[in-house]
Amino acid sequence: MDFSLTAEHKQIQEAAYKFGQTTILEGLRERDREATSDRKVLEKMGESGFLGVQIPEAYGGMGADYVSLGIVCEELERADTSARVALSVHNGLHSMTIMQWGTEQQKKRWLPDLATGKRIGAFGLTEPNAGSDAANLKTTARKDGDHYVINGQKAWISLSDYADQFLVITKLVDAEKSGDGGKPSFAAFIVDRTTPGFSSRPIHGKLGVRAGNTGEIFFQDMRVPAGSMLGDEGDGFKVAMSALDHGRYTVASGAVGIITACLDACTKYANERTVGGEPIGKKQLVQQMIASMVQGREVGRLLYYQVGWMKNTGQRHTRECSMAKWVNCAAAFDAANKAVEIHGAYGFCDEFPVERYFRNSRGAMIYEGTHEIHTLMQAEYELGYRSDKPLKRVLPTWPE
Ligand code: CAA
After folding, report:
1. Are residues 256 and 364 in the same domain?
2. What is the pLDDT of residues 40-90, one digit of tens each?
């Protein structure tokens, strides 16, 4: 086992840290206050190569390994969650799922533009009445000649206004190949937003990730070519679940960035703020909170590095990824809560960043599998009720 970061990892880490502390933080407080996202940040992420970190060079990406993607997520979320969410959706849920499930023709068609950010990708699984119970989705796809006609709607879609294309999970109607034992059959499509019948509407009033774009997307008699299907008829749910293996990895690694940001803010504040003639960092109760954050950061890194390594080496990692997402997101929220506590009244206003970390970290315990879903998954694995079988299509290993 080798836990050391390579020279390339360190280089990417430094570049992502600098990008976060300059491009992302510039004007962020105002964007967060006014709840407006800035598409230029996304464009600059594309120019810097971050939108194609893990995409092989053959498809125009940076060709770095999956650990590098985690490192970029950690460093960008150290600045703000909204930037990491863009990576989760574009790199994780969208591009990596094409890398896993796409035919060679599909990879050549989509990955080069996604790698540079010329086109932005997003993900549509959740619906107003299908969140944790993802299989209860109601969006339908009906075969019509060499096209499918899609009807329905998706909710809580990150980058809904900016994405050029969406990975949309549908339930097949009149499918030639119905699901086993009468179970519904699903299909996944890459859908272009310029397709007639597509529309979107932003969601306002979010608790956190206010500098990020979230909304709903609608499909009315939207005709998509059969060649836009990822996998085969009946693979849709597996495509969705494997997309989550990638998205959850980016959320887990990003959560470590929040903890690091809490430590950045708290170590500075605890050394400067004095009570009774000494810095509050000398108080044991403050030290206890700092130590707990350090524990979250160190455990969190090991968990996501392990998942990155499993991705690199082509191992199934649904269980480990769920664990990393479950543990790290809870640790990030706990760290942010403690960071507010350490800052006292200053932690309650946006003069200091910790109130933003507190609001932002709460969301990650809901999206990409709630805290409760991951709790249940971990119990089910241990009890023998759930197991990870070999996959029909696997993510390319690194190096390929
Ligand atoms: N990769 C490939 N296939 C997989 C898989 C994976 N990771 N996980 C499961 N599968 C396959 C299984 O092998 C199974 O196949 P068979 O039928 O051939 O055996 C099939 O998919 C069904 O799997 P499960 O039996 O595990 O399905 P389930 O119904 O028990 O799943 C659940 C229940 C785990 C709770 C699942 O519904 C789930 O994860 N829910 C949470 C959904 C979620 O995370 N949503 C987040 C939305 S995206 C988002 O939030 C992003 C954003 O924009 C912010």
Report:
1. yes
2. 999 999 999 999 999 999 999 999 999 999 999 999 999 999 999 999 999
Site of tokens 């197991």: 387
Q: Which atom of ligand 1 is nearest to the CA of 318?
A: 7
What is the per-residue pLDDT across 137-190, written as a single tens digit (0 to 9) for each? 999 999 999 999 999 999 999 999 999 999 999 999 976 555 566 789 999 999
Start-end of H helices in the chain: 7-19, 28-34, 39-47, 66-79, 81-87, 96-101, 104-116, 236-272, 284-312, 318-343, 354-363, 371-383
- Which residue of the set 341, 368, 380, 382 is catalytic? 368
Asked if residue 265 is part of any domain, the answer here is yes
* 228 shares its domain with 306: no
Asked if the structure places residue 392 within a domain, the reply is no
How many domains are contained in the chain? Answer: 3
**Listed residues 119, 134, 150: the one ending a domain:** 119
Residues with CB under 6 A from ligand 1: 89, 123, 125-126, 132, 134-135, 157-158, 237-238, 241-242, 244-245, 247, 318, 367-369, 373, 377, 389, 391
Residues 114 and 129 in one domain: no
Whether residue 353 contacts residue 265, with contact meaning beta carbons closer than 8 Å, is answered with: yes
> Percent of the chain at pLDDT above 70?
98
Q: Give the residue from 222, 237, 252 where a domain finishes.
A: 237
Which residue's CA is the closest to the ligand 1 atom numbered 14?
A: 238
Is 133 found in the same domain as 217? Answer: yes
pLDDT digits 0-9 by tens, 195-240: 999 999 999 999 999 999 999 999 999 999 999 999 999 999 999 9
| Amino acid identity for residue 107 in this structure | K
- Is 320 catalytic? The answer is no
Domain presence at residue 38: yes
Q: What value, to the nearest 5°, has the Cα angle with vertex 297 and ends 294 and 303?
A: 140
If one counts every other C-beta atom within 10 angstroms of the C-beta of residue 313, the result is 11
Give, in degrees to the nearest 5, the angle at Cα 353 between 18 and 364. Answer: 85
**204 and 329 share one domain:** no
pLDDT score of 400: 81
CATH of the domain at 141: 2.40.110.10
Computed over every residue of the chain, the mean pLDDT equals 97
Pick from 70, 160, 163, 53: nearest CA to 116: 53
Q: Which domain holds residue 254?
A: 244-383
Residue 395 and residue 309: Cα distance in Å, rounded?
13
Shared domain check, 257 and 232: no
